[in-house]
Design a protein that fits this description.
The protein has about 500 residues and is an alpha/beta fold. It is built from 15 helices and 24 strands. The protein is globular, with a radius of gyration of 23 Å. The structure holds malonyl-coenzyme A (MLC) and adenosine monophosphate (AMP).
Amino acid sequence: MDFFLDRLARHQGLALASPAPTAYPALLDEAARLSATLPLQARDRAVLLAPPGPDAVVGLLAIWMKGATAVPLHPGHPPAEWDHVLRHARPACAVVHERLRPVLDAVAAPREVPLVDVAARSGAPAAPAAWTDAQTALMLYTSGTTSRPKGVPLSAGQLATHIQGLTEQWHWSAQDAVYAFLPLHHVHGLINILACALYAGARVHLREKFDPAAVYAGIADGEVTLIMAVPTIYHRLLAHHDKATPDEQARFSAGAQKLRLWVSGSAALDGPMFDRLLAVTGQPVLERYGMTEIGMALANPYDGPRRRGEVGVPLPWMDVRLRGPDGALVEGDGEGSIEVHGPGVFSGYFENEAATAAAFTDDGWFVTGDVAAREAGRYRILGRTSVDIIKSGGEKISALEIEAVLLGHPEVSECAVVGLPDAQWGQIVAAAVVAADRGDAETLRERLPPFAKETLAPAKVPKVVRVVDALPRNAMGKVQKPAVQKLFEDHDG
Ligand code: MLC
Ligand code: AMP
């Protein structure tokens, strides 16, 4: 990551505009002093657990200064999610904020993972480690169709492709200012926003949580020059707009028009929302398509028409092809499953050969699991090949992982989890369960979400639970997910 750290060392202005103003030299100095205290060798892995504030940024840079791999955890997830990562990633240490230390310690101590306070700054700064392109810089966890989340290692070379490519594509400069309110354990918040901003020498307003009122007012005041978000955030911003006074609305629209770029991704931005945003902000949102394993792959143009409902064309460093239902590659216009290839694509899941083999074709292209239509070279996302992948609020969720947890409840004998369409979240998690005995269905319905919340990240907790007599199955006894979705037809999304 020396390409990244060297670039940051050239910036003089403000790196963090809020919560506390911090200039680039001070940020790097803090990171160098933390780095000197970290018990890490180059190529070790280090878990990073801090609220999305200055410490999280300092911690990330400090780990990279050691030549080590950062494995960020989400501070709002239950310890069982952290435990999975600690067990799987086997980090050499965990860099942790004191607020989260007691909870993490309960998970880390049995695994003998030493904890380092992210506020420690006692060491004398040493020169940052040298990196090779192949060295793993980041490991993010992502849900798939099977079991628990998988580790996605991203090398320094792959991150250089993403960060340098995106800063150039989207014209990032030191004049930019951006909110970082998306979680810092995903590509969207960590790479597309935070890393690109820092690489360009821009100012970052770190926010612990997305607060529609604060962001609405900040846009009106010209606090930022661009916005990057998931559709759920835009939904909330528009809901806030609808409740604002005509005066506030006028101020917001005037401010919003001055932004140089609005980007949406991580889930489909529906046509009506594109239209509403255009009406309210005067800006056609640039929709792009990406994935943890590959970074960004398709995007509408920075200059040129941005089309509603489309994700544009392959980014210059990405090769994209479609494979039709007959197994043959699609030439020209047509529909098929998306496969990608290029220097930004990861090399395989961490210590999971079976999942890696299943995810790549024989000629080395990554099979995304998404389906698209191509017309005159431009792509439109149609959906996913698996019903067991749910996207809610931009979070990728495995139905099977939730089913395994719900089956752990003593009063559940069978269950099936599906995604239901939802205006705010894109999809929401719904569970149909069969009770183990004929107890009180209402009580079971109420008990299951808190039960799931004990071990699963908030986005995975079912928002709708139905107790049914039997799950719809085919002649072979296999649960029919489309029929399960129909059980919720009367649900008001
Ligand atoms: C929170 N909740 C969710 C949820 N997030 N439910 C479903 N889906 C989600 N994503 C739960 C909360 O726990 C709470 O439950 C209830 O919903 C309302 O919570 P909230 O406080 O209103 O939600 P908030 O914490 O503000 O989170 C909403 C959000 C967040 C949209 C800000 O989900 C978010 O940051 N999403 C972005 C995820 C992301 O960055 N994805 C990018 C992946 S990378 P209760 O029971 O307490 O009421 C990728 C590649 C690419 O996809 O292309 O970019
Ligand atoms: P993740 O695994 O969290 O990185 O999520 C990646 C997935 O998000 C992709 O495989 C798509 O299913 C979805 N996704 C990302 N961007 C878009 C988009 N613009 N439109 C539709 N789906 C998207």
